[in-house]
Amino acid sequence: MLDMEQRFFQTKTSSKRGFTLIELLVVIAIIAVLAAILFPVFASAKESAKATTCLSNERQLGIASMMYTTDYDDRLPTGGIENNGSAYGYGWAGQLYPYVSGTGVYACPDDTTKSLSRVVAGTSYTLVPVSLTLSQSLVWIAGQTSEMTATSKTVMLTETTSGAAAGQYNVADVTSPLELGGGNDGTGHYLFSPVSLGGLLVIGPGYVLRSTAGYMGGAANGRTVFFNATDYLSPTGWHHGLSNFVFCDGHAKALNGSRVSTGFTYYGNGAPAQCTATSTMNQDAFMANGCSFTPAGTESEENWAATFSPI
Question: What whole-number distance in Å separates Cα of residue 125 and Cα of residue 120?
């Protein structure tokens, strides 16, 4: 009887076996295929979440700007930092700070710029990332909404990131109305909230930062003849090829950069024949014809979705 039980358990044990090598390879191959399919989906979903967070942050800044205009006679925040006797727009982020919930709304989740600590005239300041740049075109009209042709189509803020060279940071002491931490720290560095010239050259005092909106319209290849592609993080926008913009009526929207005019002066009816006949969507041909001025407003024949030109 004992021998029969031993033989029974030996038979049950011997019938158990592990996976064969072929079976293991098949399982691994299936997992690899699933990973190859799902990982891009996860990455895309993650980027979509970042884009949504960024747009939400910008909407908060848009609302804050409308609150600011209510308090300051319908004038948008255009900064108050003096540079060589002229206000260039630096300081707009500090002006909005009393109307927002914290410093995090200034940063895009895709921006890897870190906060900086610096000492100016013996005082320590914390400078946080400001992933947005103010259109300097608004400075020329003192931010007056009454002077704009179409506030809902005029860009106030668009996205930027640190420059290609070392020491070019898009950071500011936003907790101060005058962004006091941006002053000269003894090394000649001035770090205020950035501004952009017509949406193209993105600057902090003495620095060239990088636009993340992608190449925009209104200049050769979406760029001026004076600046090259290093002024841009990439030819397309940060968020699935799009960029988030805040407009002068306070709303925020994602757009393809090529649909946004950089805001140079439009020739209008006085343009040479070759300039009115050539579509500026083909910017190389337009510039080759000697048409150095390109369309600014959304009412031009190119039908831009938005413009940096307030008038």
Answer: 8
Positive or negative torsion for Cα 235, 241, 242, 243 = negative
Element (H, E) at 306: strand 306-307
Measure the CA–CA gap between 158 and 259, rounded to whole angstroms. 14
Q: Does residue 158 fall inside a structural domain?
A: yes
Residue 297, domain member (yes or no): no
pLDDT in tens, 48-90: 788 899 999 999 999 999 999 999 999 999 987 654 445 678 8
Phi, psi of 263 (to 5 degrees): 100, 25
Determine how β-strand 155-161 pairs with β-strand 210-211: antiparallel
Residue 16 in any domain: the answer is no
- CA dist 55 and 40 (Å) reads 22
Question: Which residue matches tokens 């290849």?
Answer: 221
pTM of the predicted model as reported, rounded to 2 decimal places: 0.76
Residue 123 to residue 190: CA distance in whole angstroms: 15
Contact 192, 179 (CB under 8 A): yes
DSSP string, 235-297: SSBTBTBBEEEEETTS-EEEE-GGGEE--PPP-GGGS-HHHHHS-TTSHHHHHHTT------S
Cα separation, 133 vs 112, in Å, equals 16
Q: Residue 219 — very low, low, confident or very high, per pLDDT cuts 50/70/90? A: low
Domain that holds residue 201: 28-215+225-256
Residue whose token pair is 């740049």: 133
State the Cα–Cα distance between residues 193 and 134, nearest whole angstrom. Answer: 8
Domain assignment present for 98? yes
List the beta bridge partners of residue 253: 245
